[in-house]
Amino acid sequence: MTELFLKGGPILSLIAALSVISLAVILWKIRQLAGLGAFRSGRATQAALTQWLAGSDGEAALQQAKGLRADFARAAIALHQSPRWDDTGRKEEIARVARGALQDIATGLRALELIVTIAPLMGLLGTVLGMIDAFQALQIEGGNADPATLAGGIWAALLTTAAGMAVAIPVAMCLTWFDGIHDRLRHDFEDIATRIFAHKGPRG
Known about the structure:
By secondary structure, this protein is mainly α. The protein has one domain. The protein contains seven helices and no strands. The chain has helices at residues 2-36, 43-53, 58-64, 68-81, 87-106, 109-141, 147-198. Helix 1 (2-36) packs parallel to helix 7 (147-198) and helix 2 runs antiparallel to helix 3 (58-64). The mean pLDDT is 81.
């Protein structure tokens, strides 16, 4: 392993650092989303919301519902019942709360996007620099160049491209997964807010 890092040069070391950073961000995002309840089903929230819309004690049921959607539903119901705003103000405030929650969920995704973009480029840069060195050696040696030595320089140069792709591919998969969670929760927030504001029952 040490020999591979030496052959890959500083570019390979930078790619290895990117892999450590990306792993740390991914594990942090999984822990954050799990704490927010993003991996749980929204059925409990929907059932509690249905009880509230039907005039039952939906707030008590929402207290039992776990997860971010239940928290958002409680906040939306409280704002909908608040006498401080008119309908426009309530909608804007609920939208603000939803944007804040979605912003928290999106935290860290830009970093993963950057890693997905630059890891293959850094690998390609390392390959280009390695090929330049290999062909410079070939020019200096001329007809006396050892083909085995030249081949060794070329595969060492290609090593950085493989490393960059090995980092970018799993990070891209995780990023797609996190984006899907973000889109699903945004849809849930919109559905909850729409159902609450479509409700014609009494407030308070």
